[in-house]
Amino acid sequence: MARAFDTDLQHFAEEAHVHGAVVPPIFQNSLFVFDSLEQFQSEMEAGSTEPGRHVYSRITNPTLEVVERKIARLEGAESAKVFASGMGAISSAIMSCVAQGAHVVCVDTAYGPTMQFLRDYLPRFGVATTFVEGSCVDEVMDAFRPETTLLYLESPSSILFKFQDFETLCRLAHERGASVAADNSYASPVYQNPTRFGVDLVLHSASKYLGGHSDIVAGALATSRERMSRILRDEVALYGAALAPFPAWLMLRGMRTLAVRMRAHRETGDVVASWLSGRAEVERVFHASDPAHPQRDLFLKQMTGSSGLLSFLPAFQDRERVRRFVEGLEVFQLGVSWGGFESLVVPLQMQPIGWDEQRWVIRLHCGLEDVGDLVADLDRAFDRAR
Ligand SMILES: *Cc1c(COP(=O)(O)O)cnc(C)c1O
Question: Which residues pair with 119 in a beta bridge?
């Protein structure tokens, strides 16, 4: 039976009710035992690709499987796998698409360690990457070479909130025989499903919105069944970035409120963004759902909402005033990451493609606190940064 997103979020993949328990148990075991040699051999042969068949928890585990089936459903993918971190999922996805001599095209606003992996680490193995700005389809495709096997996207990007045209880029990349991966951590499956537009591998840092409570580090990858069987055999089995059952269970618990949390983050983010845009101390606001966003058409096409993550270019660019601002905040706490219950601030010095100098950008994550308190906090910090 087809059910709405919020209903699937609560119940999909949870039909088993062990001993009638309304919440799935934590299967805290490393291995599974068998009564007969025949059963043992058949499980080993089935590998890990069939649901409900488990041999060893580095590859599959019933607690993880509940979360994985749910994520696949929410992302509109055939299968999903959780990992010990977002980077565990991302590096596995990338490695599943490259071999010696391969070339990758990646947006220059992707998550920092993702770019570091492509730029600094993979050349050791003969894999090269070209970074592109990403908003111009022709420019992205011009970076393709005959040996390009992967286009890596992150839309919206998580500091400047730039979009890439999934549908057009997927069509063109597929014509050239390349796979397309996209980091969907910002939107979560609540506000965007990249598979709808042809993306082959959808990635999440579940340390952010999927987990939602700043109490786990975890990642997820959603893709086709066929691709997943290879990833299970190779990257999952051989790198061993397996998520443990307890954080997988915390992720499941966090996801119960994913949709209601996202609505709250979105509402607060919109209020804070529009309040910031009226301030003299703010030169420019970067927010995915800004009606004046230069790529508004892509937001409307690909997403159904924005989240609590946004940033701004302060008119003050000296380090001392940036320091007074971030230290002057009391509700927003200074720290990396985002996606949890708490509001966070992080100042970043950056110079992406197209900027003629390095600038301070202040990124805010609007948590689940009262929006009036958040605005008052920012107001007070601007005073302190004078
Ligand atoms: C945090 C983050 C990651 C990495 O996730 P970890 O769980 O920290 O490994 C990847 N992509 C984006 C956009 C992120 O913000």
Answer: none
Q: Per the structure block, which two tokens stand in for 270?
A: 């919109």
CB 104 within 8 A of CB 129: yes
What is the Cα–Cα distance from 324 to 326, expressed in whole angstroms? Answer: 6
Measured from the CA of 157, which atom of ligand 1 is nearest?
A: 13
Q: Ligand 1 centroid vs 119 CA: distance in angstroms?
A: 17
- The answer, yes or no, to whether any atom of ligand 1 lies below 6 A from the CB of 185, is yes
Residue 111 Cα to ligand 1 midpoint, Å, equals 7
217 CB less than 6 Å from ligand 1? yes
CB 207 less than 6 A from any atom of ligand 1: yes
State the closest ligand 1 atom to the C-alpha of 154, by its place in the atom list counted from 1: 13
Regarding the beta carbon of 86 and ligand 1, being less than 6 Å apart is answered yes
pTM exceeding the 0.90 threshold for the entire prediction:
yes
Ligand 1 closest atom vs CA 87: 9
- The pick from 109, 118, 158, 346 for probing ligand 1's pocket by mutation, whose C-beta has the most ligand atoms within 8 angstroms, reads 158
The kind and range of the H/E element at 286 are strand 282-286
One digit per residue, pLDDT tens: the chain, 386 residues?
689 999 999 999 999 999 999 999 999 999 999 999 998 988 888 766 677 789 999 999 999 999 999 999 999 999 999 999 999 999 999 999 999 999 999 999 999 999 999 999 999 999 999 999 999 999 999 999 999 999 999 999 999 999 999 999 999 999 999 999 999 999 999 999 999 999 999 999 999 999 999 999 999 999 999 999 999 999 999 999 999 999 999 999 999 999 999 999 999 999 999 999 999 999 999 999 999 999 999 999 999 999 999 999 999 999 999 999 999 999 999 999 999 999 999 999 998 888 999 999 999 999 999 999 999 999 999 999 99
CB-CB contact of 183 with 111 (8 Å): yes
Angstrom distance (rounded) from CA 128 to CA 106: 11
